[in-house]
UniProtKB/TrEMBL annotation:
Name of the protein: Nitroreductase family deazaflavin-dependent oxidoreductase
Similarity comment: family membership: Belongs to the F420H(2)-dependent quinone reductase family.
A Pfam family recorded for this sequence: F420H2_quin_red
Coiled coil: none
Gene Ontology MF annotations: coenzyme F420 binding; oxidoreductase activity
């Protein structure tokens, strides 16, 4: 992630917090959470805004990485340390991240395909399987 991307994320995080979880611009109308995670190699604490879905009691994100061929850095950070926190609206939650597999992954991916998003286009264009991450409260 470059400096320009970090600056864009910083502005989204600021707007998210000022607006109680609501942001405009390219994220207008999307349901966002803020993922607090630590760089697996750098050890640097990061906050990344991510689009999510609530499915039952689960908070779910797709690691689509904007349609790029590699998984996003935050995904690799979760593999190294799944004990993280998320901000949803005005509340912070300690959660454990896990990767959905098999039938659960397919069920959750269907929620992303059915919603207005670029998930289906990314899935079709990419050779990698887009990981679906489930955040469960601790």
């Amino acid at each position: 992630m470059g400096d320009e991307d970090r600056e864009r994320d910083r502005r989204v995080v600021e707007e998210f917090r000022v607006g109680g979880g609501v942001v405009g611009g390219r994220h207008a109308g999307r349901t966002l959470l803020l993922l607090h995670h630590t760089g697996a190699r750098s050890g640097v604490e990061r906050v990344t805004p991510l689009t999510f879905r609530t499915v039952g009691e689960r908070w779910v994100v797709a690691a689509g990485n904007g349609g790029l061929p590699a998984n996003p850095a935050w995904y690799h950070n979760l593999l190294a340390d799944p004990e993280v926190s998320v901000e949803i609206g005005t509340e912070a939650h300690r959660v454990r991240a896990r990767i959905a597999e098999g039938a659960e992954r397919e069920e959750l991916a269907a929620h992303f395909r059915a919603a207005p998003s670029r998930f289906a286009a990314f899935e079709e264009a990419l050779e990698r399987v887009i990981p679906i991450v489930v955040f469960e409260p601790r």
